[in-house]
TrEMBL record:
It is a multi-pass membrane protein. Residues 1-25 are annotated as: Disordered. The keyword Nucleotide-binding does not apply. Its main location: membrane. It is found in: Cell membrane. The chain crosses the membrane at residues 44-65, 115-135, 168-188. This is RDD domain-containing protein. It comes from the Bacteria. The lineage of its organism: Bacteria, Pseudomonadati, Pseudomonadota, Alphaproteobacteria, Acetobacterales. It comes from Acetobacter okinawensis.
């Protein structure tokens, strides 16, 4: 049974020196960079921040570029007790005390033919947001950057747009819809990977600069 190779610094044994001898604990030694995986709640807070940003952007776009909505009112007369129909206009024009309101107004909203195009743009906005940011030099969305997180490949490199797109599609159509199981996996996997991370081959790290393992001298 093959074992998963841990990332640099994750359970790595002290490296032998040039002459083949293993340095003592007290001796200074070069250690690989330590990868700190982003935990479940850190990623939840980052996702909430990204959700607020996306909602704000969508609201602004809808306000300035959304289709115009027209309201048409249709009057539906209802038979009264006498078997006749009395509409709103007739009620307003008569002063008969026996006249009672027996009509209703039903609104009909018309968004125009450009509503479908605008709806497609709004549905594609989250995909563009996550894919472009995570595949950029930032390696993260603004929410993740706020909490010092990065989305990288299994070797710690910047991911491509294709990998970022695959990660988003799996997250949108599998991780979230299936009772959030693919998202909850982050809390139980060794490298804090969700289902979308495992399929796309990505990791979410939380650090600003690589840290070093600090050796210590054990006491007797």
């Amino acid at each position: 049974m093959s074992s998963i190779t841990p990332p640099p610094g994750w359970g790595a044994a002290p490296q032998p020196s040039v002459d083949g001898s293993t340095p003592s604990w007290g001796a200074p030694q070069h250690q690989p960079d330590v990868w700190v995986y982003a935990g479940f709640w850190w990623r939840v807070w980052a996702f909430l921040i990204d959700g607020i940003i996306l909602t704000t952007v969508e609201g602004v776009l809808s306000l300035f570029f959304g289709p115009k909505i027209n309201v048409d009112w249709e009057e539906l007369p209802i038979p009264d007790g006498s078997g006749q129909t009395v509409d709103v206009v007739n009620i307003a024009a008569t002063s008969l005390p026996q006249a009672h309101p027996v009509s209703i107004l039903v609104p009909h909203l018309h968004a125009g033919s450009d509503w479908h195009t605008f709806g497609i743009v709004l549905s594609l906005l989250p995909m563009l947001y996550f894919v472009l940011f995570e595949a950029s030099s930032f390696r993260a969305t603004p929410g993740k950057r706020l909490f010092r997180m990065e989305v990288v490949s299994l070797t710690g490199e910047r991911i491509s747009h294709l990998r970022a797109l695959l990660r988003f599609v799996i997250k949108a159509f599998l991780s979230f819809p299936l009772f959030y199981i693919g998202v909850l996996m982050v809390a139980f996997t060794q490298r804090k990977q969700g289902l979308h991370d495992m399929i796309a081959g990505t990791l979410v790290l939380r650090h600003t600069k690589p840290t070093q393992i600090v050796p210590f001298t054990p006491h007797d």
